[in-house]
Amino acid sequence: MKILLIHNKYGKHSGEEAVVYSQIDLLKSRGHQVITFFRSSEEIEDTLPSKTKAFFTAFHNSVVIKEIRELILTESPDVVHIHNLYPIISPAILPEISKMGIPVVMTVHNYRLLCPNGLFFSNGKVCEKCTGLGKEWNCVLNNCETSIFKSLGYALRNQWARHQKYYLEHVDAFLCLTAFQKKKLVQNGFDEEKCNVIPNIYNNGFRGEDYNLEKRKYIAFAGRISPEKGIVTLLKAAQQLPHIPFQLAGSFRKGYSLATEIPTNVTFRGMLNAEEISDFYNDARLLLHTSVCYEGFPMVFPEAMTFKLPIIAPRMAGYPEIAEEGINGALFDPDNADDLVKIISNVWDNENLLKKMSNASFKKVQEIYNADYYYKLLFESYIQVVNKVVV
User: Fold this and answer.
1) Are residues 22 and 103 both part of a single domain?
2) How is residue 27 annotated by DSSP?
3) Overall average pLDDT of the 295-316 stretch
4) Beta-carbon neighbour count of residue 368 at 10 Å?
5) Is the pLDDT of residue 173 over 60?
6) In DSSP terms, which residues pair with 277 in a beta bridge?
7) Count of beta carbons in the 10 Å neighbourhood of residue 134
8) Residue 362 near residue 206 (C-beta atoms within 8 A)
9) Which of 309, 296, 305, 288 is nearest to 233 (CA)?
10) What does the alpha-carbon distance between residue 1 and residue 13 come to, in Å, rounded to a whole number?
């Protein structure tokens, strides 16, 4: 099968970018031909003319439409696989692809089909206002991007795509990362039969390191240091648990600084390279995820699970589907430091429970997030849409 993969890169490494490249490598390894059409947000210069151009290309980019049409005519792909389209490629390509009779599948990495900022998060808390009264204008009223111009741009492009029914009428299958994400799409008018649940692939090897509590001395956090990651909740919990070390791997989001006092048992490690991150997980007892927004499928989960780490995560969104309570993880009430303290205290010294969850973590990442399982679900989705178009 020949697949045309279309993606607007973010200009910085992320879990989504890793999944895109893993998908390409997997498809090629199974004998498929993959043609790519990439653009990158790095193309946008920090100048008013460049940013203004990016604002308009989010609605319609005639140059990109022409390039993709020519690519399809030249390559004749069997299916088009969409990842991110903003801000350069634009969802306006979708009806053009439909006109050419090529089926389209789209991996739904976040909640941008329903929420302009893609996170269902505004002003420090979960927000689903853009699915209700006023729709996308709530993004402007709440200034979700902390820049009225950026918030307006995000709101307008989402509203335009919704009114044009780009996604509803011109995508044949939505590949959701969790059942929770699928539920949100269906609740907001998307065809349930078009929504398939395919968890992210982890294709970077399975370590299976020995889980020895004497060696594993701290609680690990891996991710960007930013408000939506619930860092303040983590610090408040750490302050109440001075006997437990916490280590955080990741860089601070530009412009973000912590107003909360940093406890002495908390260490910020910064960005770590591949070798350093392996050591980081190998020496950790637990992975802690404190996000206060709806993330799609954090790749730190399967990554940590390959090192046999149990996961503590918020009881919301799709997190409980990955970190199953009492099986390979424990759950706490979102943005609740006191409940997080209780959960950590219950598991920190419970060797039998930790080893049970550790083994379950490793088993799950091997069985559910492996290449074979992912490929089976992905190829079934391709066949489904190709057959539908042929019929």
Assistant:
1) yes
2) H
3) 95
4) 15
5) yes
6) none
7) 12
8) yes
9) 288
10) 29
Q: Which helix (H) or strand (E) holds 219?
A: strand 218-222
**Opening angle at CA 18, ends 9 and 278, nearest 5:** 140
The pair of three-digit structure tokens given for residue 121, joined into one six-digit string: 């998060």
Q: Given this model, what pLDDT does residue 44 score?
A: 86
Asked whether residue 94 falls in the same domain as residue 62, the answer is yes
Structure token digits, residue 120? 């269902």
Residue 376 pLDDT exceeds 90? yes
In whole angstroms, give the CA distance from residue 209 to residue 202. 17
Q: What is the mean pLDDT of residues 275-288?
A: 95
Range of the domain at 23: 2-109+172-201+370-390
Q: Which amino acid is at 277?
A: I
Amino acid of residue 90: S
176: its two tokens:
């959701």
- Asked whether residue 157 is domain-assigned, the answer is no
List the beta bridge partners of residue 241. Answer: none
pTM here is 0.90
Question: Considering its fold, how many domains does the chain have in total?
Answer: 2
pLDDT, tens only, 30-83: 999 999 999 998 888 889 899 889 989 999 999 999 999 999 999 999 999 999
Copy the structure tokens of residue 89: 């490629």
Tell me how far apart the alpha carbons of residues 129 and 292 are, in angstroms, rounded to a whole number: 16
> What number of other Cβ atoms are within 10 A of residue 386's Cβ?
17
Question: Same domain, yes or no, for 283 and 331?
Answer: yes
Structure tokens at 381: 């989705």
**How far is Cα 131 from Cα 140, in angstroms, rounded to an integer?**
14
Please indicate, yes or no, if residue 119 is contained in any of the structural domains: no
CATH of the domain at 353: 3.40.50.2000
Q: If you search the block for the tokens 């996000």, which residue do you land on?
A: 291
3-class DSSP string for 303-318? HHHCCCCCEEEECCCC
169, two tokens: 């009428």
Q: In what order do the strands lie in the sheet with 79-82?
A: 33-40, 2-9, 79-82, 104-108, 173-176, 195-197
What pLDDT, on a 0 to 100 scale, did the predictor assign at position 42?
A: 87
Q: What digits encode the pLDDT tens for the residues 106-165?
A: 999 999 999 999 999 998 889 999 998 889 999 999 999 889 999 999 999 999 999 999
Mean pLDDT in residue range 340-369? 95
What are the structure tokens assigned to 220, written together? 């690990």
C-alpha distances (whole Å) from 281 to each of 116, 229, 284, 362 are: 34, 19, 5, 13
Amino acid at 231: I
